[in-house]
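Reminder to self: tokens first, then the designed residues, so the page reads top to bottom the way the pipeline ran.
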């Protein structure tokens, strides 16, 4: 009986210690941010806003690029059949019904049929430049966030370090090491937060660049196919 009571007491004690440690860990991040003062709170808030902006732009552009890359595999075959048979209006209607950069480039080329190939090619290139601009809309903001977030976090750490050393200087060398250490590691949380935001934005930016390049290559391939169609002997 005594053994059971002792075992139960030890289990309850262990659970209480674990709960206390867990509670301390839950509060530690919040406590570090709050203990950093108004400067740390402001910088963490700015980084949080930058993270929200980066995530919004990433997912908005990702869905837009995925939608732009979807096109019927038989699209160019249908365009070829319509143009070869002289059904220009049917080809234009097909392009109008297909919402994609490839369709819009093809429509631009069809509208120039009858003019020199150089003029048609130039018109397609100009339209392609506009389509690429649309695909890359706001993507540069991700690159800006990726570069600015770590610097903003480091700024918070520098400010925290200045305040810590100022406390040491004004205390006449009597400042407690515990409070100084706490202020320093609290200040460094802004650098960690800045690096996290910067890494997320950097990865998102590069992923969007790769996705955009695939759509651009698709546009170029279909533009070449269309020009080859016009070069075919009648």
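Designed residues (234 positions):
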């Amino acid at each position: 009986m005594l053994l059971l009571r002792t075992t139960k007491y030890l289990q309850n004690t262990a659970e209480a210690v674990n709960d206390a440690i867990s509670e301390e860990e839950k509060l530690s991040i919040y406590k570090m941010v709050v203990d950093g003062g108004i400067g740390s709170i402001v910088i963490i808030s700015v980084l949080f806003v930058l993270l929200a902006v980066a995530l919004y732009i990433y997912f908005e552009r990702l869905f837009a690029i995925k939608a732009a890359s979807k096109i019927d595999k038989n699209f160019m075959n249908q365009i070829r059949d319509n143009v070869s048979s002289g059904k220009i209006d049917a080809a234009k209607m097909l392009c109008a019904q297909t919402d994609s950069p490839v369709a819009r480039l093809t429509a631009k080329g069809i509208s120039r049929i009858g003019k020199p190939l150089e003029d048609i090619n130039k018109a397609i290139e100009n339209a392609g430049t506009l389509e690429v601009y649309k695909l890359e809309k706001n993507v540069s903001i991700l690159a800006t966030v990726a570069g600015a977030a770590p610097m903003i976090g480091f700024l918070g750490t520098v400010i925290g370090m200045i305040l810590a050393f100022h406390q040491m200087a004004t205390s006449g060398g009597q400042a407690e090491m515990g409070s100084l250490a706490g202020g320093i590691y609290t200040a460094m949380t802004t650098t960690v937060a800045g690096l996290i935001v910067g890494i997320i934005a950097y990865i998102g930016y590069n992923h969007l660049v790769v996705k955009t390049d695939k759509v651009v290559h698709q546009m170029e391939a279909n533009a070449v196919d269309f020009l080859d169609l016009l070069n075919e002997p009648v």
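The CA atoms of residues 68 and 100 lie 5 Å apart.
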